[in-house]
Amino acid sequence: xxxxxxxxxQRLMRWLGVFSIFCMLLVLLGGALVTKTDSGAGCGTTWPLxxxxxxxxxxxxxxxxxxxxxxxxxxTGIIIGIFSIWTAVHFRKKEVYWLSALSLFFLILQALIGxxxxxxxxxxxxxxxxxxxxxxxxxxxxLLTINVFERTSSKNPSHTRSTFIPINLRKEFVWxxxxxxxxxxxxxxVRHMGASLVCPGLPFCAEDxxxxxxxxxxxxxxxHRTLASLIFVxxxxxxxxxxxxxxxxxxxxRLITLCFIFVTLQALTGMLVVITMMSLVISLLHALFVxxxxxxxxxxxxxxxxxxxxxxxxx
Length: 315
Prior knowledge:
This protein is an all-alpha fold and 315 residues long.
């Protein structure tokens, strides 16, 4: 293979990565759309067929939404499968192997949970995991694509971005992404148990009931609000700290700034969900912004792992 052919293949690999991210976003938002429109039973209790047919005859709104989500998920599985295997075979690096495996494993896992919910039914506790698992697959695809861009921007396939991150900051990123996952799970649980609109007031549940929730649905809803508020404050404090730190890599500072932008947009759309009585567009934007926040935090975790490996290799 000559240099020109290799360059064309690398360009194709980069484009396939970007397309995989786009497809995975459609899966994430499609799943959120199914939940928000209560279309989970749109194809009955058969899977992967819809009402026992490949193309259902009765295309009602719920059936169309669920059938489209299944089709996009299946197509995305093929695309990500090709992308993951191609990158693993091409680069043969441990980091690429891990990211390829994670993106595929969690994509398959979320499909199986969705299938189980259709065929056998699942509790709200299990169904709330569906979005979070898809989120991990999405972040893995994003990191895998970043890997491809890093490695194909240089003639050396081992070249990846490496930067110094203080150990206390590395630990904080880990705790933050774990906490964010809890926030995401609590939000998904609110949706699945039908508690999205039980608290019409802001910032408290309702003006007439004050700060104390009156039932389990309001407790769950206000629990999610509290958790989401705390991560906003956490990222604001972190943002101030890192921009005061003159020794920190500006690239890390920009990534944390991006995290704060996404958490701010997530908070605003969360409030608008209540104000607009769960507008579909606002609800999907709310899911989009938290997905982007999770992906950027995941990249900070990856940079932290690289930093740790670099330190241990020099000892």
